Structures are given as structure tokens and as C-alpha cells.
Amino acid sequence: MISRKILENCLFLDVETATGYPDFETLTLEDPRLAELWSRRAKYYRTVYEDMNNLDDGEIYKEKATLEPEFSRVVCVSFGVLQETGQTRMTSFYGEDEEDILNKTSKVFINALAKNMKLAGHNIKGFDIPCLGKRMIYKLSSPVLPQNLVIWDKKPWEIPYLDTSEVFSFGSWSHQKYLSLDLLACSLGVPSPKGDMDGSKVSEAYWIDKDFEKIKEYCERDVQTVIDVLDKVAI
What we know:
Blueprint: H1 4-7, E1 10-19, H2 24-30, H3 32-48, H4 57-64, E2 72-82, E3 88-94, H5 98-114, E4 118-121, H6 124-139, E5 161-163, H7 164-167, H8 173-178, H9 181-187, H10 202-207, H11 212-233
Parallel strand pairs: 1-4, 4-5
Antiparallel strand pairs: 1-2, 2-3
Helix pairs in contact: 2-3, 5-6
């Protein structure tokens, strides 16, 4: 399905985000304008998701803000490279200093571009790449985006991404939208990346527990799972 040679020329990645502030009350105190914009966003969620009709702005913030770059922060970026031995070399940037994480991530992307490597991951076109691009623009004092993040004027075959959600959709947009990495791994007999952690628990681990190592380990498991999934179908 996919050549192993291609996999050896991929930079696998995963991004974990937490809410931009510990809670909606803190957001309201620190940035009232952004809080007002979140309240408008919360109205949208109540309209689209029936189970959110009875949730207040703070409860929806806790559940959904991590998915939106304008209301979240990057707390971990993990990279993996598949070596000729079949082992994965992993590197992660994580912790409380988002600017440092983004600066280091940018340098990795620039290095990958120089080596003509593809960026690979699950739903990276839908989440990870736009999240990193936006957070770099919003957060860095002098943002110069790596050119492998700037794809708005590229033809489809020029975009250097290998997205497993897209590969396994076989052209169906609906299948791409609803295929989680956990479900894909399960279907292929690959161990789950989740363990006792999933994306909904990252904010709590970050703001309350300060367990940055746990977030990193979870992020790296996602990277390894993508590699294992693709290795399973490689030819």
C-alpha cells in the first residue's frame, strides 16, 4: 500500500494542546475580549451539539477549547523518525514555555524541508499542521513560518504530507472525518495509543497535575502508533 522507502523519509509528528487558560473564569479576568469571543463560540457549539445545550460557557471551554488554536496552547510536540533497523528515534518538546516549544518545532520543520522529508501523522492536515502554523503566528514575536507549513498555493501533489486519516479514507470525506487513530489501530490489530490518557485529559494533566512527562509519553505513543499502523500495511 505504501512503500517502506517512503516511510523512512517521513518525519512523524503529533501535537498535544491544553486550554489557553486554566479555566473560563481566568480567561475572563485575563482577556475579557477573548472571553467574549469564546462565549459566541460556545453558542455555536450549543447549536450544533444537542448534548451541550445545558452546558455553560466554562464547561464548553473545558471540553472544546483545546481543539481551537485561538483558544488553546501547544504543550507538547513529538517527532519520530523510522530508522533502517526498524526502531524509532523520538524527540519531544514539551512543558510550560509554549514559545520555546514552537521555536524548536520550527527548526525541526526547516531541517525536514532541507532533507526533502514528508511530514506524517494522523489527521495532521485537519489539526496538527494548522494548529502549529496558527500558534506560531499568534505566539512568536517574529514568526517566519517554515515553508512546509505554507501550502495554500500548492498543488495537491506538491504538499509534503502523509496523513493516515486521508490514506485510509480511500477518497471518502466522511470516512476520513470519523476515523480516529485508536479505531484505525484497533482495526489493524495495533495496540491502542491511549492507555490511561487521552486528549480530553491533557488540560487537567497540564494545569492541575503539572504532569508534563505524562503528556509527553502520551504524545510519543501517538507518534509510534502512526508508525506501527503504516508499517503494518507497508510493502
